[in-house]
Fold:
Amino acid sequence: MKRLSAPFLSLLPWRCTHVLTSVILIAAAAWPASAAGVTFLVTSDSHYDAFENEDRNERDRVTIDEMNRITNVRWPESLGGAPIARPRGVALLGDVIDDGDRMKEGKNQSRRQFDFFVADFGLDGTEGRLKYPVFEGWGNHDGPPVGREQFGFSFQSELKRRNAIRLQQGLITNLSENGLHYCWDWDGVHFVQLNLYPGNKPHPKIRYSAAYHDPQHSLDFLEADLASHVASSGRPVVIMHHYDLQGTDWWHDEQRRDYYDAIKEYNVVAVFHGHTGTGVYRWKPEGEPRALDVINTGQTENGFFVAQITDDRLRLAYRMKEGVKRTKQADGSIRHQWDGTWGWRHVLAKEITTPDEPTQRTYTNPVIDEIGPADPTVIFYQGKYYLYPTGDNHSYHVYYSTDLVHWTKGPRVFEPGERNVWAPDVFRDPHDGKFYLYYTVNRRIGVAVADRPDAKFVDQASLFTNAIDAHMFYDGGKYFLYYVQLPGFRICVQPMESPLEKRGQPIEIIRPTEPWEMKSGAVTEGPWMLKHDGTYYLLYSGTGASSLDYAIGYATAADPTGPFKKHPGNPIVARGNGALGPGHGCVIRDAGGNMWSVYHQQKDDSQPWNRFLCIDPLWFDQQGVLHGKATRGTPQPAPIVAGQKGGPGARGL
Structure:
């Protein structure tokens, strides 16, 4: 594979950058004013406190407010001076809280600190002060591994819970078996969060507590993840962890050597870390020809890095509170004075050299070319897609794929002993890890459960009568079950206490009102929920399912229970260009983060219900309008698979 080029100007010797420096590193070539790419923010060491030093929390909040305003800020002139694009998310690289396992004056200080963090950073950009998704890891201040805590609170246990939610929501694409280390993809760029540092277990020559400094097989995860999700593609990789690389004694030289050996053949465009100071430097073990560009992200209370990666360049700069004065008081406390001025430091720009683009993979609809499968739902689990459709009318089978294009029919997973078995939905609960199948049998919705996505599902409960087309949506710790109530084909939502238990009464949110929904019977059905930039998008299908005019539209709301407003441009997916009756599907993301609609079409007009399965992209434009299309018989750019660079338009989601 091709190597990365060095930055245009040589950086400071690495030993000089432990201290805060105002040196600016400028690219020799002008940055294009209209550059597009992946923009993201990085910070670390928020050190949330409780029952003491809580003024630091307020300084963190001021920084978060600046993150939220960053689209109103321009890049430094040395980096082109253009407006900064909306960040895809914020990485927080450890030492999230200040005391990971501590009581103070009889109160659990760690839990209170964590509560402050959650209130400010949230999780997916809708729950806290921060308006973007956050991707945090743990540092040495955040406490010991699960089970070693002394006072009833475990930061790592909470991290595992939050990671399970991220995986469920599609924010991340791969999660380690221990639930701690993870990765995600933004437009072909691969990001890896390794928490404390890349290693497998504490080194015997490190003097710090093994309980607090156990990397818990993050290096094993990194090696396996890069091999399976990047391979020889040459696509850019960004790696993040807490400990630094500059001669630190928090982990051993032998461990850093193992880390370098694990990544040196990949296109690692940047390594971000926290723990010590703020700056940009280059690092490599002695005797190696290639140095890595490393960014020391500093404390959240002081600022954050803004970074952007395009097809051929990386640029980043540190957004910093200027002129902060710190004065030690008589009682030993530190008084902070700041006039509100923000500035830029630690500017870096470099070219990225990647291999030539491989031949574009294509697909042609239908992707399952057999008559019968319809109303599909798809989940992604441990590197594989699992598809469950309406099938033989008395049971459900599962299909497998690694690329959303080539499918293999698997075993029968549910057979209730009745007929009219339709429109399944499968949901993996982030809390218990089990798989819940919401079935429709003779116009009755029920739920069954299994421990694996390809195992036999065991019936648990009946939930609704005179109802079809269930879909479970999980949002910020809350469950919402969408379904179609008969007669009238009214889409309703039932708040749920758990995957099995209802909470309160159902709410009607959509019914047939528009001409396209009533061409061949007044129908709104097949609900599927998306969330984008804090708005809820309810996809649904309209008019009779046996009609060639069956189509897909959507409605939006500020809350998962509504009120919903139908999109004036509906339907967004309809017949045309050979496609007939496209509808009733689900949405899944490929390895590059692009959205795909998996749905059915009618084969022709000779006989109703002759249906087969198709895939086509969905995407949001900059105004938040959702778009889609239906294709048949013509080659189309295929979904990104693990290890592939780029994607079909690399759409911003």
User: Anything to note?
Assistant: Residues 1-29, 645-653 have pLDDT under 50 and may be disordered. The chain has five helices and 39 strands.
